[in-house]
Amino acid sequence: MQMTSVTAPHPDPSGPAQHAGRSDDPRGSAAQADHPHPPHAGEGAGRVDWTRVREDFPLLRREVHGKPLVYLDSANTGQKPAAVIEAVDGFYRSHNANVSRAVHALGTEATEAYEASRKALARFLNVRADELVLCSGTTFAINLVAYSWALPRLKAGDTILVSRMEHHANIVPWQLVAQRTGATIKVAEITPEGTLDLDALRRAMTPEVKLLAVAHVSNVLGTVNPVREICREARRRGIVTVVDGSQAVPHRPVDIAAIGCDFYAFTGHKMCGPTGTGALWARREHLQAMPPFLGGGEMITEVSFDGTVFNDPPHKFEAGTPNIAGFVGLGAAVDYLEGVGMAAIEAREAELLAHMTQALDAVGGVRIFGRAPEKAAVVSFLVEGAHAHDLATLLDLEGVAVRSGQHCAHPLLQFYGVAATCRASLAFYNTHEEIETFIAALQKARRLLA
Ligand code: PMP
Hints:
Blueprint: H1 28-32, H2 50-55, E1 63-64, E2 67-68, E3 70-71, H3 82-94, H4 105-125, E4 132-135, H5 138-153, E5 159-163, H6 172-181, E6 184-188, H7 198-204, E7 209-215, H8 227-236, E8 240-244, H9 256-259, E9 263-267, E10 278-282, H10 284-289, E11 300-304, E12 307-310, H11 324-340, H12 342-363, E13 366-369, E14 378-383, H13 388-397, E15 400-401, E16 403-405, H14 410-416, E17 421-425, H15 432-449
Parallel strand pairs: 3-15, 5-6, 5-7, 7-8, 8-9
Antiparallel strand pairs: 1-2, 4-10, 9-10, 11-12, 13-14, 14-17, 16-17
């Protein structure tokens, strides 16, 4: 049976955006619920009309250098469905005001819209809305943990454990903390196929380790780390865990409560949402104990020159005017992803990944980095005799967008002893035909570079 593409995402363009917090909010009581529900799961890739889903993404219709665009850079940033673009547009056209500062109608609408998105995200990820700090993205979220949780607690002799496959956003903040506290950084190594060596990781969880920072999914290798198991082991040893969910949340059902971490960071722009949006989920006890990261408006309840009373979490960590329209768009992105179904998205991307891997292996002379048994749809590769940037430039001339470089993961590339790779990263809106176009373009580029 073919399912129609997506049911919810198109808001009435003449009316308020979907997350405008109206009393007739089409998401009804679920959107207003304070208590989360488990993320839905179930339908497989075969029940979704992926051709129609793709039509929801206006940018994918454009051409590049006279060729139809083949966008294979979704690990870098995702494309946006019309529902998200319209939600942002609708907010600015009909509801724009600042949050939590005005009693007038627009101020109330803006605040409700912003908070509705927090609730939508909380429902999507199975956490409490009041444990979700909205911020500009993963980089901010991890820095918030570094400066508010780690900096006041860690001292000389303590250790921060990070994996070899981390993005710089999950390395550099810990180095900054280590420099200021005297703590040291220890690296959990990987196997050549790109999986975490779990025995070595367990052995590395020594009593000095106070914090473990690990990616849910690697942005270079695509490896899906067993974060539930890792966090359980860490918790048994009293180690606080920070999971970087940037590459997981857009591509698979994520249930943060089930993972059992202490902190979970993610970014909105990779999950069909606007840039400059994202969140940090943290256990309530941490949020209560942590001092604010930034001071200013919104994060206080009372200020005098004798002192300041801070607002309750999560607002305590949301100083200043947030990216209100962006979060309205992110709420629409959550609705959109739920409409397609995260289980269906995961299954679809697994099919596309299998196709791309098989096709690349068939080309010959292609080295793929990352062959983990559980892998998301990210393929880093090199072609014998060709530099990654030259390859990416020639692919671009054929309309194919891939990323080349070090993917903000220098230590990982150092492990493989290469200066750069090309990375083709897929999303559910890609097609099997696009993979064929990519392979044909790669073969052409290879001939030119030979
Ligand atoms: N971690 C991972 C695994 C990522 O892929 C990225 C984005 N490339 C980040 C962190 C940083 O995300 P942002 O730039 O949105 O803060």
